[in-house]
Amino acid sequence: MKGRVLIVAGSDSGGGAGIQADLKAVTALGGYAATAITALTAQNTEGVQGVLPVPADFLRQQIRLVLRDIGADALKTGMLHDAETIEAVCDELAAEAPGVPLVADPVMVAKGGHRLLQPEAVEALTRRLLPVAALITPNLPEAEVLLGRRIPDAAAMPEAAMALLGRGARAVLLKGGHLSGELLVDILATPAGVTRFEDRRIETRHTHGTGCTLASAIAAGLAQGMSLVAAVARARAYVRAAILAAPGLGKGHGPLDHGVTIDPARLGAF
Fold first, then answer.
1. Burial level of 89, CB count in 10 A (0-12/13-18/19+)?
2. Would you please indicate which residues are annotated as catalytic (active-site) residues?
């Protein structure tokens, strides 16, 4: 099953994250990706140098036209920038795609440190986006902002993920990549309980766009009818392979190889 995914996110001029990474990931996993762009960024592997938001009315038009014609089997949101954008996106998705599973990546800060979500927008994100998402995929700093407290280590992650469920999210994939240590731990929390994923950490600077890529890969799996656990497992395997195959571009945080070839039997085994 091909699976249609509408991605609502910002553009990365360097091609490693944002809409560009989303498109590549969904396509690589056999899905069909359409887009509604929330903002243009001027950036490369060394950081974001400028952000130009798309007017809310034009963003609404992008979402509406795609959904009324092409439709979607899953949705993915990334950089939403400000409260007005969040309100516009949530309004349109509620009107045009009720019941379609949404993977929400609560993008707040770029890999190089540039803020991509305005501080005053956190309340709108918590109030509007979290309750309608089938899954949110925060990294540890994002989860700490949403919870208002620190998550010091991997042992604290399951409780933190469950606490985010209490804030309205229906499922949470809490990503532990910001912690140190040989193991990288991610925690998937649902009302049914907690699933732990772990891999040996890859020591590399080429990790630009990993969050965008992971969330879009999960959305592709949901669009193709996979269970949430299976979609997360396949997406993590894909991202790991893309990191290992990274082309080594740029002077800073380099992009992944989204076109990495993975044994289709392995991808379908979850």
1. buried
2. 175, 207, 209-212
